[in-house]
Amino acid sequence: MSNKQLNQVFSVVKTFLAIVIAMVVAFVIILVVSDEPMEALYAFLLGPFTSVRRIGNLIENTIPLIYVGLGVCVLWATGKRTLSGEGCYYFGGLMAALASIKIYFIHGKSLTVTSMVIVLVVCGIMALLPMIVNLKYGTDAFVVSLLFNYVMFYIGNYIFSNYLMDITSTSSGSYPLPTDSFLPTLIPGTKVNANLIVALLMIVAVWFFMYKTKWGYSIRLVGLNPNCAKYVGINVFAVCILAQFIGGAISGFGGGMEMFGRNPRFAWFSLTNMGWDGIMVATLAKYKPQYILFSALFLGYVRTGADIMNRSSDVASEIVMIIQAVMILFIGANSFLAAMQQRVRVKYNEKAEKEA
Fold first, then answer.
1. Which of 250, 254, 248, 256 is nearest to 96 (CA)?
2. Per-residue model confidence as pLDDT tens digits over 241-287
3. Gap between the Cα atoms of 52 and 305, Å rounded
4. Measured between alpha carbons, how far is 284 from 16 in angstroms, rounded to an integer?
5. What phi, psi does 174 have (nearest 5°)?
6. I want to staple 183 with a disulfide (CB 3.0 to 4.6 A). Which of 153, 168, 194, 217 is the partner?
7. How far is Cα 124 from Cα 245, in angstroms, rounded to an integer?
8. Could you tell me which residues come within 8 angstroms of residue 102 by beta carbon, excluding any fewer than 6 positions away?
9. CA 173, chain centre distance (Å)
10. Quick one: angle between helices 274-284 and 319-332, nearest 10?
């Protein structure tokens, strides 16, 4: 077994153990705080699979996580840790609602496509602005993108309050989105729609772009070694800008698609925290697009189970935050299983030397 293969095996084991430890911690907390712990655990573990509607909820919770997870995979591929996906997801939903409500001369699915093209362009541009500041002036990319999210939110809140708010309705939110622009439902009795198919296709598209095109290779090379990339003639500035544009566009696309079928009105009065969720999903997937579906499904399953447990027992759904924190703690800890990995590597090297 090569060192590369050994690192891959331990990476999988490390992620698996982090999930197990996080779930065990959650179970212990449930056993301590709940008066009916077995019912709470049943609702948490098996609740998402007890009805078609709940399975639909699981899928509905998974779909946006796919987009933001893919967005982070691209945003962070150059080694620039930005949080642009948070603001882009919010702004994507806002721009989709704005376009679909204010464009009167286009109807039906043509309106949906037009709105999403606008979302891709606007959110891509919004995401690359913090990166330009970072590359030009040497600022901290994470801090600048974090602060810029609030700029995007307050700009969006102004647009929402002055141009979209329906003050004549008892339902708080924007004017209703045109129903003929909604995506077709895939599972009757749920809000699972064609967005699921688009999300799965997006996984394939991002994987193909990152691993089968020269642009994707350039992005990954910059992330691995920017000096080497510059030496072989890659324009590091342009590649970082490209990665931010694509990553922001994907995150914004996820927010926009949520408007067509799942939300009859735009009613996001604050940032959604989906950018942080995207980091969680991408971390579980080891920043590889081909694994995003599994990590998004797991986090969607945990959230659906926690929501069902919250409604059917005396345990609050905030247990999810504990699970996420513990997983991030162990996955991000460089020393976790490091000693065991080193011992295994030494044994394999000694065995290889003897065989040689």
1. 256
2. 999 999 999 999 999 999 987 888 898 999 998 988 999 899 889 89
3. 14
4. 9
5. -80, 180
6. 194
7. 4
8. 163
9. 24
10. 50
